[in-house]
User: Which sequence fits this backbone?
DNA sequence: GGTCTCATGTAACTCGTTACATGATTAA
DNA sequence: TTAATCATGTAACGAGTTACATGAGACC
C-alpha cells in the first residue's frame, strides 16, 4: 500500500495541504519516484480520514479541504518506515521493448535506441532545471526530496549512457559477425 | 498493455514454450524489466489465443500446452515496437520511502540507507552471476536480453552508489548544521 | 462576460496480487 | 513410496487508469 503512505507522508510534511496541492507535488517532485492520478489521491484521502490517520483541519473556498495528520497517522508512518521492507518491483516499459528489438530488425532497433537516448537527454535537462529552480535543504521535505532528485538525475544519466552504448552494440553486431 | 506484449514477444522468440516455461523466463532474465505472476501469464496466454495472436501448437504431458505465434501476432508485435511510444512510469517503493526518511529521524534514516546499499550490492552480485552463467549473444533473445542485463547491472551500481552518497549527506547534515 | 485555475468527486474498467485448488510425471 | 518438479487454472480482492461530471472563485 505505497500510495497510502505517499499521501499520508505528504500530509505529515505539508500540514494544511489539500488534495489539489498534493496533486501538484505528485506531478513535480514525486513524479520521479511514485506516480498517482487525481482520482487515486482523492480516494485515498477519504479512506485515510475514515481510518483516522488524517483529519479535515479546515475548509476553504470552493469546497477546499485542508488535511492534518493525526497521532495515529504519525505512528503508522513510523511503522511503515522502520518495520516494513520495501519491494523492488521493476516494471519498465522502454526496457521491456529492448528485449524484443530483434523482432523489428537491427536497423530499426538502432533507430529506436537513438530515439530513446534523445528522450532521456531531454528528461535529464528537465530535472536539472527543476533542481536549480527549487530551493533545497531548507526543510526536511526539501532535503530528502533533494536526495530523490539527485537520484533521478543519476538515473537519467545512467540510462542515457546505456542507450548510447546499446545502440553501438547493435550497430556493431549488424555490421560485423 | 505491456504484459500482453511481453508474453506475445516471448512466444515469438521461444516457439513451443508453455506457460510454465515463460514463468521461468519472467523469474530469471525478464525480472529486471517486467515482473509477472503465474496467474497473469496463464490468463494472458488464454486471451492471446482467443484473439488469434498465438495458437496451441502442441500438447504435451501433464496438460502442457505449447504455443506458437501467428501471423497476426507477429504483425501486432511489430506494430507495438514501431508505432507506439513507451511510457516512463516510475513507481519505486524504496525511493519513495527516502522522501519521508526525515519523519524517522536522521539516525534511523542513515541506518535505512545503509541497509539499502547492502541490499543493492547483493542484488548486483546476483546479476553478475547470472550474466556469467548465461551464454549471451547466441541468438536474438540472448543478445537483446544481454543488453537488458547490462542495464540491470548499471542500474544496481548507480543505485548502490547513490545510497552510499545519500547516507553520507544525511550523516553530514546530522553532525553539522 | 468569459476564460482560467482551483477544487472535488464518482463510475467503469483494466491490471496486478494472493491464495486456493488440482493433478500428472519423474527421480531418489 | 514419497518428495520434488511440472503444469494449469480460477476466485477474490486491491491498485491503477480513463473519463465523466460539476461547480466556485479569480482575473481580465
Assistant:
Amino acid at each position: 500500500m505505497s500510495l497510502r503512505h505517499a499521501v499520508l507522508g505528504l500530509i505529515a510534511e505539508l500540514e494544511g495541504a489539500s488534495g489539489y496541492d498534493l496533486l501538484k507535488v505528485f506531478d513535480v517532485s514525486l513524479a520521479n519516484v511514485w506516480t498517482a492520478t487525481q482520482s487515486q489521491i482523492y480516494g485515498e484521502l477519504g479512506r485515510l480520514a475514515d481510518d483516522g490517520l488524517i483529519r479535515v483541519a479546515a475548509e476553504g473556498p470552493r469546497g477546499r479541504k485542508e488535511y492534518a495528520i493525526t497521532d495515529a497517522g504519525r505512528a503508522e508512518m513510523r511503522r511503515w518506515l522502520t518495520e516494513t521492507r520495501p519491494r523492488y518491483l521493476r516494471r519498465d516499459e522502454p526496457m521491456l521493448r529492448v528485449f524484443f528489438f530483434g523482432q523489428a530488425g537491427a536497423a530499426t532497433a538502432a533507430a529506436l535506441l537513438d530515439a530513446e537516448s534523445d528522450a532521456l537527454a531531454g528528461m535529464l535537462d528537465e530535472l536539472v532545471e527543476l533542481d536549480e529552480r527549487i530551493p533545497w535543504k531548507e526543510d526536511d521535505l526539501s532535503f530528502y526530496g533533494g536526495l530523490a532528485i539527485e537520484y533521478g538525475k543519476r538515473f537519467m544519466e545512467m540510462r542515457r549512457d546505456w542507450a548510447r552504448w546499446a545502440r553501438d552494440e547493435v550497430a556493431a553486431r549488424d555490421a560485423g559477425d
